[in-house]
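Cross-posting from the modeling subforum.

Setting up a comparison between two proteins and wanted a second pair of eyes on the formatting. Protein 1 (sequence, then structure tokens):
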Amino acid sequence: SSNGQIQEIETKNIVISTGSAPVELPFAKFDGKTIVSSTEALEFTEAPKKLIVIGAGAVGLELGSVWNRLGSEVTMLEFLPRIALGFDLELSNLLQRVLTAQGMTFHLEAKVSAVKVDNGHATVTATKNGQELKFEADKVLVSVGRRPFSEGLGAEKVGVEFDEKKRIKVDKHFRTNVDGIYAIGDVIAGPMLAHKAEDEGMACIEIIAGKAGHVNYEAIAWIIYTNPELAGVGLTEDQAKEQGIDVRIGKFPFRANSRALTGDDVEGMVKFVADAKTDRILGAHILHHLASELIAEAVSVIEFGGSSEDIGRTTHSHPTLSEAVREAALNVEKRALHIINR
């Protein structure tokens, strides 16, 4: 316990759900003051004048955009040639343009090699296109991923098996190799998302209770809470093509949506990826201020194996932002009402 006392609890079943922790870089260890993780970046008492963010994934983009809006000069350093890996490339590029217009600076294909701290200020060294670049910062946020919080729990002492990434191995019923020990959430394989862990928790307890618990991992949305937000579920257009699936694409911009126009909130679009043969929705992607809310409709339709026609033939109230979702679905078959169908 927190006061140092040890308590032994005897039980029939144990569910390990210890979550994850930020990954450190070997040359940029967290000091909690100048080189920080997402935890400390939520606790700044004032906006740093200059903030360097290493890693343009979900966490880096979210916190970078927050401090940019609060007045910081934010520079994003990303090793890859794009931001938001795993999300639809077209919408990710659009998000980058919007965030750049808001004042954020992006350096892609930039490999960070050193972070030096002197008297509370940092100098970040990176290489881009063969040239060495140096950046000065008051704070450096390292957001290059998270690791499962699986060590030091005592699980290894009783023989629980781990994979090469130190994730606890489980079967489709969340059972480890040790009878009576289960694991869910960030500590096992799969996306490190709170709602994924929540669903696994419910399914795991249902299974322990003798019921039929199940999680459909194809119907779990990913969201980046920037402004605008980027949300996606299922396959992206590129992922479908890599799998050799013949697809049709439907798109609709919020600039053609009446509710977005009246609210002067027209940045972004809705995009559907549908199977060309069956019309089944394989993926949906949204960039908008309320993308996290709008993606739920697509998640539901993917859950029951629905098609773009199912959404297109469903009445959506007017005027609402959800009409853009319907119009994008209609555009899969080039039947959208308020844009030229191409």
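Protein 2 (same layout):
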Amino acid sequence: MGVFDRVHDDNYEQIIYCNDTKTGLKAIIAMHSTALGPAVGGCRMWNYASEEEALTDVLRLSKGMTYKAAISQLAWGGGKSIIMGDGKTPELLRRFGDFVETLAGHYITAKDVGIDSNDLKTIKTRTKHILGIAGETNSSGDPSPATAWGVYNGMLACAEKAFGAKSLKGLHVAVQGLGAVNFHLLKYLAQEGARVTACDIAKPAVERAQAEYGVSVVGPDAILDVPCDIFSPGALGAVINDHSISRLKCKVVAGAANNQLATERHGETLLQRGILYAPDYAINAGGLINIYHEPKGYDRDRAFAQVATIYDTVKLILDRSEAEKRPTNRVANAIAEERVKAAERAKGR
């Protein structure tokens, strides 16, 4: 299948292949949509098995950024970039920055897997179209607290819909994974008086969660079987699949992990089982919303106030899902697509 065939149905705007023989740079920048604003998305460096795998990844990720920005009502579009290989050098990163600069702000980069803040500083020597450099003036810093704040507010919307509850007090939350985001989430859950069962493959993370928050602990393989009110995926993607759905003993799935559904049809299966699902890219958009405030002059209170509107976003999705009797993932997609298409019409596209 040719590249144009790959990008046609989902209406990708631009795919830029970046090559530099001297530095060994092989990169792809994908801009899925700029209807709502510049295409924003991080740069991922990965040792892909093939160019086909790299293209598939950057296309999937850039489209996901369009939907995340649109559902969050941000004036940004969706983009992403990947650098193939693991031979990272300052020269290669600077050359990548050159390519980003040629796009004149239509694409704005940030960090992702394989690219850290020091790498971003190197890239920034060649382009100003970059966000999320920790420690710099106006930086929004670590996105984990904002992501957790958004997940917490999304959980509140789910609890209201599923249990008629105005808080998480007394509810049992099963937290899968104890990475940076979920550790911040534990704080909010503890403050609310929720009961938490958690798991992680890293023993130090488990011990810390027990010491600081008094959580109950089960093995990673057992977390799906825990009877609870809310199951909160915060580790690997595709956790909601043919094998796991039948094991769930909850009324709500709401967590920070990306790509929680193995396929779109699993949203339908959750609906049939009476399990309310908060679409991942809506509930975990706090980090993106937080960084959105950097160009305006970052103010944490203002940024976190907007992150809290994830409650309203999730509530809108749940209410519309109930009214239309459609899975929440399909409803979220429809809302995002409606906003993008409205912006395209306004621009005469």
